[in-house]
Amino acid sequence: xxxxxxxxxxxxxxxxxxxxxxxxxVSSISQExxxxxxxxxxxxxxxxxxxxxxxxxxxxxxLSYNDLAEIVNSEETLQFLQDIIPRKIKMSExxxxxxxxxxxxxxxxxxxx
Amino acid sequence: xxxxxxDLNLPNAVVTRIIKEAIPDGVNVSKExxxxxxxxxxVFVLYATSCSNNFALKAKRKxxxxxxxxxxxxxxxxxxxxxxxxxCLEAFRNEQKxxxxxxxxxxxxxxxxxxxxxxxxxxxxxxxxxxxxxxEEKSAAVQGAGDADSDVMIINDDSGSSVDNGAEEx
Lengths: 113, 170
Hints:
heterodimer; A: about 110 residues; mainly alpha; Histone, subunit A; about 60% helix; about 5% strand; disordered N terminus; B: about 170 residues; 6 helices; about 0% strand; disordered C terminus; DNA-binding (chain B); protein heterodimerization activity (chain B); CBFA_NFYB_domain (chain B)
């Protein structure tokens, strides 16, 4: 397929470098380190997709957002992604959450005074 | 440096292909899931960089090297990446070494063929290398001819033709 030939199989290292440089306190990165990080990211993408599909309790023919959120919020090594891929919740659950927080705040205020 | 926020995203087409490689054919990946994985990959790069940088700083170095990245993977509990990464690095090093040797060889060849017109019996010389050698041999031979008998017209050699012009006028 022509499309397959046009899209390269590896992540663009220039982009990987831009992301790396955006991290604070990083002064310079060796070529080898850049190469290794690019490869590690590829491995990570594959591992994340694979494990999400394997652990998926729903449809095995589709990888959905919820499969990802489930794995991110249950695997300890993926904790760093919890803010990026949170579990979806219903509006009613969200309201309950807000209410709970408000109640807690009120309690704290009462304790403080 | 990143000037626009989208500069910190990885190209979607490439990410999608990498995902497809990991999962069986026929499995559909929802658009939402693809976007989430792409963002996760960017965050992974940042997280790995921060960990690698810590290892570099600990060793009082300013440059992150490959060993720092490998240590970071262990630190992040992605030990399963260490072995494939080391293999990949090995391949990368060999490739770089090959490139360096090829360019050094080319340099050496050029010097050699400049002195004695072409002595290229290299087994691993590649195509454009031999083409270059051939060109240099030709020009060296042409120059030699121009020196030997100056009444022969040589059009494609500058120094030769100027000598010839002088000879014809005189």
